[in-house]
Design goal:
By secondary structure, the chain is mainly alpha-helical. The chain is built from 28 helices and seven strands. Among the domains are: 32 residues, no CATH class; 122 residues, Up-down Bundle (Glutathione S-transferase Yfyf (Class Pi), Chain A, domain 2); 61 residues, no CATH class. Helices cover 51% and strands 6% of the residues.
């Protein structure tokens, strides 16, 4: 293999794409230098996750075939058990952890790289794995003979003697069969499966369009006025113009800081009008399919079908929850817009560059204005300069301290592993041990920086679930800025710090869940609670003690000065009316498109957005703009569930105020939280677990006080 970069076919590409990496073994690129191919895999051991990440499409396909064979053998084994010999161990437990679930390492190994491989061919193969495994899951849930075995077990004497944990699974498995249409005619069962397959394909196509978007906008440095010099220089190309993509590290600095309204408007238009071709039509197709699925299962809408097994219970209960909150935030939303309009009017008078409207009269705040003028408001009225604050949050320091805080709070120990198989050299791996016993609890990967083909937002992927001696494995994929080519550290806005802290809370939820098969299909937290633990943990990022630890100036190593820290905390609820109105709008839009009256096509979706956005957020929807083109939550497991963010935030505020506010680093409280909220996963009723943790039923009072909507 040549070591000369001049003749390496990969190095030029690496130089053009900071953080890109050729994901191929040396045997397939004999002409590439050592930096451009992956090293040999280390041997697997108990000190490593049980994954050998595929490096070619053929390896992915081999894994898929192996899972399919394991699944068929698994089904045959259960079906061969005589009725007289059915037990929990030979029938129910195998259904808890079948080979096509995330309790099998091969499932993750075959499909996870669709989100993060640098090889488009591998991503494509891994994406196909998702469809194959979805079909296996559907087949397992619609097998009448398997259902018959599970149902029969619930009539046997052993069923009455089961622990609460095991009884949950026996009941959940039976309920899952029945929810999959086994009570339907053979004809309707076939139709139901066909509809589900079509919806899966529709969502996959939508996701692919998002992941493979190639949109690049070109601006002169002058058109990026207000952005930092580092940002402008980091995006400048040989022709002197700056190239901007539609990922968060590019979008957020511009929408927050660029004083040229035409630039912000162009970026907003690209995301909501021009990019992601065909996605609006795919949303229309998907919601129609889900409506038909719900009807076959006896529900009036997909929203009614989904909420029936959640904390909310029904769309009507969500409305009763949301309507008072919308009423309380509406006045604040109007005031926030009026304040921002005054700032814009000042700009129109010449104090701020780049406004497209003339001075002297009234001005209108557009959606592309809110982040920019909110940033100015924070800076001028509250002394909160997001760019100045950013200097105190180098990425490496934030990651290090976040991990330290979680270890202290939850009585855990993280050990970084250096030699492991990976899909990219930037990925880090940690083993998690219980502090008191030293017991290995699991592993987690973190993959922090954007690159071509990678999942474009921030999310946690629960790769592997606990199963006897096998511990869980989680992965965090983010798109936080990478260090500059000159070695300057990556700096985070405070919002990025909160996001990282939040997402890491999901990792802890996955690794602290106890019991075999916990958090699998049969033991998931209700979708409207799953965000609550991480939202509760965001509060640490608003306490002076945690902010002092999380901050470290990139040049001086000083922590946030008291005046800046106090200004941040004081300004926490600035703009809350506008923020809450947007959150309510997103949740209500989700429920509307999954409700009784489903828009028939893309034009119907456009009409709905044109009506709902100004009514709820008090901001006009630009012509042709439709954020459903890139609202990926609604084309995955969050469909009819986005309201859950606000639902969960109310619960999280109650947990924080009741248990942690007085002493955020109380280890006894942290362990109680770990055992009573995280460890139980989705087994039993989370409302009962939560009441036990709080010592009473949850209340909205803490949330309303924390958001400044009522006086404390």
């Amino acid at each position: 293999m040549s070591t000369a970069a001049a003749v390496c076919p990969c190095c030029d590409e690496r130089a053009q794409k900071l953080a890109a990496f050729t994901f191929l073994p040396a045997s397939l690129r004999p002409d590439a230098c050592e930096r451009c191919v992956l090293p040999a895999r280390p041997e697997l051991s108990d000190d490593l996750p049980p994954f050998a990440w595929p490096r070619t499409a053929a390896e992915v396909e081999a894994g898929i075939a192996q899972v399919e064979a394991q699944y068929q053998a698994h089904v045959n084994t259960i079906l061969a058990i005589p009725e007289a010999e059915i037990t929990f161990d030979n029938t129910i437990f195998p259904m808890m952890c079948p080979p096509h679930f995330k309790t099998n390492p091969l499932v993750c190994q075959s499909k996870h790289l669709q989100h993060c491989s640098t090889d488009a061919v591998v991503r494509e193969a891994a994406d196909k794995a998702t469809g194959v495994f979805a079909k296996l899951k559907a087949a397992s849930k619609t097998n009448p003979e398997l259902y018959k075995k599970a149902k029969l077990f619930t009539t046997l004497p052993e069923y009455a003697t089961l622990s609460v944990y095991n009884k949950h699974f026996a009941d959940a498995i039976v309920a899952s069969f029945e929810a999959s249409g086994l009570g339907l005619s053979a004809e309707d069962q076939a139709l139901l499966q066909s509809l589900k397959d079509q919806d899966t394909a529709c969502c996959a196509a939508y996701k692919k369009t998002l992941g493979e978007d190639k949109t690049v906008l070109t601006f002169s440095p002058e058109e990026l006025a207000g952005c930092t010099n580092d940002f402008v220089e980091g995006h400048k190309k040989e022709h002197g113009k700056c190239e901007i993509k539609l990922n968060y590290p590019d979008i957020i600095p511009i929408m927050d800081s660029c004083s040229v309204e035409a630039t912000r408007q162009a970026l907003s238009k690209a995301r909501e009008v021009d990019a992601y071709p065909g996605n609006l039509e795919l949303v229309a197709e998907g919601i129609a399919l889900r409506k038909q699925i719900a009807a076959l299962l006896g529900r009036s809408s997909w929203a009614a079908h989904c909420t029936a097994t959640r904390m909310s219970g029904s769309p009507e209960n969500i409305k009763s929850f949301i309507d008072p909150l919308l009423e309380k935030c509406r006045e604040g939303c109007q005031k926030d817009i009026e304040v921002l309009a005054e700032f814009k009017k000042e700009g129109a008078g010449g104090d701020l560059p780049g406004s497209t409207e003339g001075g002297g009269g009234s001005v209108e705040i557009h959606a592309h204005d809110t982040a920019y003028y909110s940033n100015l408001r924070m800076k001028r009225d509250y002394g909160v300069d997001s760019e100045a604050i950013r200097q105190y949050f180098p990425l490496d320091h934030v990651v290090k301290v976040t991990l330290e805080i979680y270890q202290e709070l939850l009585s855990l120990v993280f050990v970084e592993i250096k030699d492991f198989d990976t899909w990219h050299p930037d990925v880090r791996l940690f083993r998690v041990n219980d502090e008191a016993s030293g017991e290995k609890m699991g592993f987690f990967y973190i993959d922090l920086h954007p690159r071509e083909g990678k999942y474009g937002h921030a999310a946690i992927f629960h790769l592997l679930k606990r199963n006897k001696d096998q511990v869980p494995v989680d992965c965090m994929l983010c798109n936080l800025p990478a260090p500059s080519a000159d070695g300057s550290p990556a700096l985070l806005f405070h919002d990025d710090v909160v996001t990282f802290f939040h997402e890491f809370g999901h990792i802890m939820h996955g690794l602290c869940a106890e019991g075999d098969g916990n958090a699998t299909t049969y033991a998931k937290c209700p979708r409207d609670f799953v965000e609550a633990p991480s939202q509760m943990l965001e509060n640490w990022c608003w306490t002076s003690v945690a902010l002092k630890r999380l901050s470290c100036h990139k040049d001086t190593n000083e922590t946030l000065p008291d005046d800046l820290l106090e200004a941040m905390i004081k300004a926490k609820n600035v703009g809350v009316g506008l923020q809450m109105a947007r959150q309510i709008y997103l949740g209500q839009l989700d429920l509307a498109i999954h409700g009784d009256d489903v828009p028939a096509d893309a034009s119907g979706l456009q009409a709905l957005v044109d009506e709902m956005r100004p009514r709820i957020t008090l901001l006009k929807n630009p012509e042709g703009a439709n954020m459903l083109r890139n609202f990926g939550h609604l084309m995955n497991q969050y469909s009819a569930a986005y309201y859950g963010y606000l639902w969960a935030e109310v619960l999280s505020a109650d947990m924080w105020k009741t248990v942690f506010e007085a002493d955020p680093f109380n280890k006894d409280a942290g362990m109680r939280y770990r055992k009573q909220v995280l460890a139980v996963g989705g087994v039993g009723k989370i409302s009962e677990h939560l009441a036990g943790f709080l010592g009473r039923e949850p209340s909205q009072d803490a949330f309303l006080e924390s958001r400044g909507l009522v006086e404390a």
